[in-house]
Amino acid sequence: MTENVTPQGVDQEARAARIRDDIVAGRTALGIELGSTRIKACLVGPDCAPVATGAHEWENQLVDRRWTYALEDVWAGLQDAYASLVADVEQRYGVRPTTFGGIGVSAMMHGYLAFDASDELLVPFRTWRNTSTGPAAAELSALFGHNIPLRWSVAHLYQAVLDDEPHVPDVAFVTTLAGYVHWRLTGEKVLGIGDASGMFPIDTATHDYDAAMLASFDTLVADRRPGTRLVDLLPAVRVAGQDAGRLTAAGAALLDPTGTLVAGAPLCPPEGDAGTGMVATSSVAPRTANISVGTSIFAMVVLEKPLSQVHDELDLVTTPSGDLVAMVHCNNGASELGEWAQVFGRFAQVLGHPSSPDDVFGALLREALDGDADGGGLLAYNYLSGEPVTGLTEGRPLFVRTPDSRLTLANFMRAQVYGAFGTLSLGMRVLAAEGVELDAMYAHGGLFRTAGVAQRLLAAAVDAPVAVGSAAGEGGAWGIAVLAAYLQHAADRDLGTYLAQDVFADAQIDVVEPDPDDVRGFAAYLERYEAGLAVERAATDAI
C-alpha cells in the first residue's frame, strides 16, 4: 500500500533534508549567549532561520556581598547547553554537527574578569549587577566628561585601585564574560566593539578605545600604579564581520568533551547582550531602537548625533558596527515577575492543578490586561539589586498599596509588569527631553513569548509603537548566530544592509500602538512610582 504524502509534508521533508545537508557540510552558524539565568545555544541555517536550540539554567550567587558566577559553572553550563543543542539536532535531523560555518559567543556585558600574566583568575568574576564602584565611577565620569556607569569594567578596575586591593599589581588582562569565553575557545584576546564600549569609552571615528581618555586614566593612576598602560590590559577591539580567530582543538574540547566537534571554525567578534539584541531586532540604523527584557531590562537607541550633555541615566555605547548608541540600562527586569509566577504555580499545584512554568506565567500575564489602567492604586518595585538609574545601591523587592486601592489578581499583575518597566520609562524620558526621535521600537526577550501582553503594556510605558518579531523569544543567542553567519557576507555589504535584505526581508513583525487609556494609566502609576521611591530607599536602610 502506498502512503499519500501531502504537499506540506513533502515541503517539510525537503526542508529537513536541506538542513541536514547544511549541518553535515558545516554551512550552519552557531550562536551561544550566556544570559543571567540561562545559557542558550541557537543553530541557524544559511538563511539565518533557527533550526535547533539548546539551553542550560543557571543563577548568580551573592558571595561576600558580590554578585558572581564561578568559572567552573560557566564551562559546565556551556557544555550542557551545547550538548542539549546537539541532542536537538540529532533528534530532528539524524546527524551530529562536527563543524560550523561560523560561531559566535555573547554574554552579559560589563563586569570585571581580571587575570595575571599566567592567565590565572585573580578574583572571582564581578558581574554587571554589582554596585560597589560608586567612588570610581563618579571620579572617572568627571575626569572624562563622559558617564561611566557603576557596572563598567573600568569602574571596577579603578575601584580596585582606590581600595588598594592586593590583586591589582598582578593584573595583566581584563575582559568581559563573552571575551573570556571567546579567548578560551580561540586563544584570541579580542572583543566586539559593542561589548568593548561597556568596558571603556569608544571613539566612534576610530572604532577603538578613546585615546585621550586612555591617557587621562594612565595619568590618574600613575602615582598609585606607576607604568600602567590601560590599553595593554584591555582586549583588542573588532567590529562586526572582522576576523576574530578560529576554534582551536583545545577550544573544541572545552565546548564538546565528546570529541565530535573539530577545530577550525571561524568565530565572529564576541559581543555583549546589548549588541546581540540590536541584531536580533534589526535595530542597528539611526532612529531605530530596541528593548531587551530579561533579568535586567535595557533600551538601545541608535543616535543620529551625539547628545547635548552628559546624563547619569544614560550610557553611551555602540552597535556591533561601531555606531553611537544611547543605552538606558536598568539592573532589574523580569526576575521578580518570575518569582511571583513560581508562587502562583505552587499554589495551583497545592490545589491539585499542576501547570508548566510557561503556562503559569502566560496566564498571569494575560490576567494583567483585565486590570485597571493605573494598576488600581497598587505599586510594585522589582529591585532585587541596586538600581543606578534611581540612585539605589541595593534593592528590596516591594509590593505596596493604600487602603483604598483595588487588590485584585489582575491589578496585582498589571502593577508587577508596570513595575518592571518603571525605571526604564524614567530613563526614556531623558532621551525624549534631548529631542531624540525614533522611527521604530523593537522588543525581544522571553517575556514576549506570551503574545500581546507585555508588548501592549510596554507601548504604554514608552508611549510609542512596539514591534515584536517571530524570533523575539530566541533573543541574543539567535542574534549572535546571525553575527556569526555575517562573517561570510561582510566583504559584500554592511551589517544593516545584510539584516534588512538577507535576514529580515520576510520577517513577520507584530506592531502594537499605545492604547490612550493605558498611556494615561501608566502615567498615573509612574507618578506614584517616583513618589514611592522614598519607601524603597527606607526599606534598604531598614532591612
Can you walk through the features of this model?
The chain is of the alpha/beta class. Helix content is 40%, strand content 17%. It is built from 17 helices and 22 strands. The protein has helices spanning 7-25, 71-93, 134-144, 153-162, 177-186, 193-196, 211-220, 230-233, 249-255, 273-280, 335-350, 357-368, 409-433, 453-462, 476-486, 495-503, 516-542, and strands at residues 29-34, 38-44, 50-57, 61-63, 66-68, 102-107, 113-115, 173-175, 190-192, 202-203, 208-209, 236-238, 271-272, 288-293, 297-302, 315-318, 324-330, 378-381, 398-401, 440-444, 466-469, 509-512. Helix 3 packs across helix 4 (153-162) and helix 12 (357-368) crosses helix 13 (409-433). The longest helix has 27 residues, at 516-542. Mean pLDDT is 93; it is low at 1-6.
Helix/strand/pairing class, anyone? alpha/beta
Uncertain runs with pLDDT below 50, 5 residues or more?
1-6
Provide the gyration radius in Å.
23 Å
Would you tell me which CATH topology of the domain at 281-331 and 427-513 applies? Answer: Nucleotidyltransferase, domain 5
Measured by DSSP, the beta-strand proportion falls in: 15-25%
Query: Span between N and C termini?
Result: 74 Å
Shape: globular
Strands of the largest sheet, in order across it?
16-17-15-14-20-21-22
CATH C-level category of the domain at 281-331 and 427-513: Alpha Beta
